[in-house]
Structure formats: structure tokens, C-alpha cells
Design a protein that fits this description.
CATH topology of the largest domain: DNA polymerase, domain 1
CATH architecture of the largest domain: Orthogonal Bundle
Distance between the termini: 49 Å
Strand order of the largest sheet: 2-1-5-3-4
Radius of gyration: 17 Å
CATH superfamily of the largest domain: [2Fe-2S]-binding domain
Number of helices: 7
CATH class of the largest domain: Mainly Alpha
Number of domains: 2
Mean pLDDT: 90
Strand content: 5-15%
Largest sheet: 5 strands, mixed
Helix content: 40-55%
Number of strands: 5
Order of helices and strands: EEHEEEHHHHHH
Length: about 170
Amino acid sequence: MSGEHKIELTVNGRKIGAAVSPRLLLSDFLRDTLGLTGTHIGCEHGICGACTILFDGQAARSCLLFAVQTDGHEIWTIEGLSETGAIADLQEAFGKHHALQCGYCTPGMLIAAHDFLNTHSSPSSEAIKDGMSAVLCRCTGYWNILAAVSEVASSEHRRMKAAEASSTSRIAPS
């Protein structure tokens, strides 16, 4: 185990400790060590965005980070965001608008869209196009992806979901 470094981080809300090689990429650590295979590896150069995760709450390319750089930080993957329901609206809209196609870029697209919508309260169509250009779709499903993100970004959609949550919280037992 010579040359390995001990790291402690939070992944999808769970504390993780591991000994890692200094050159182990975060994408490989997530997939091979933790079994979180929703983080896809495409170009390994940070261009395609298939490996997008949230690093301390912001979208980042896991193929450009070494696992040792995450010591003391918080990582969210597609599995964690799905499990918590944080991206449920986006997942529903992607299905409705057939924005999935082959699905390889989908985890990165969903995380990029989640990050984008968290930082843009009422984005224009142009802003959505620009924001979603951070992840490449090889199937050219961009129009459907943009339609899905636009729907979730719309004020009407957000108002409906807020009203739903409000009425559900009144009915839900304590």
C-alpha cells in the first residue's frame, strides 16, 4: 500500500474513507471503488461532460479531478441526486420529451441541468442552450433536452411543483 493516501469525503450524503493512489481519477474512484457507475467516462479530457458530478455543490468533471483532491469535500453523483429526489422533475421532463436517446450523456446532462437551474431562476432559451452546451450528446438529442430543461425552468412548472409540495406537506403525517 506504499504511496497511497487516506481520504475522507462525503459521497451522496454518506461519509467515506479510503486509501487511494495519488493518480487515481475521481471518475475511476466513483465507478470502480464505490460502484457508482452512473458517472460515465467519455473523453477523459473534460470535454464531453459525461462524468459530471457535483463537487461541493457545483458541477465539475470527475475525469479532471484526482480522488485525493476530494479529501474533506462533498460529492454528489447521479445515484445520490436520484435517490434524494433532487432531480425528479428533470428526470420526469426528460422522459416526457424523449430527451434520453441512448442515455450515455443523460447522467451528465441531468446534473448539468440541475446545477444550471439552481443558479438561473428564470433563464432565457439562449441561456439554457448555452448552459446545456457543457455536456455533449452524440445522438444529437439537444432539441428534446432543451425542451425538457425549458419546461422545468418555466415559472408555471415551478409554481405547480411548489403548490404540490405545499398541499402534500399539509396532508403528510408528522
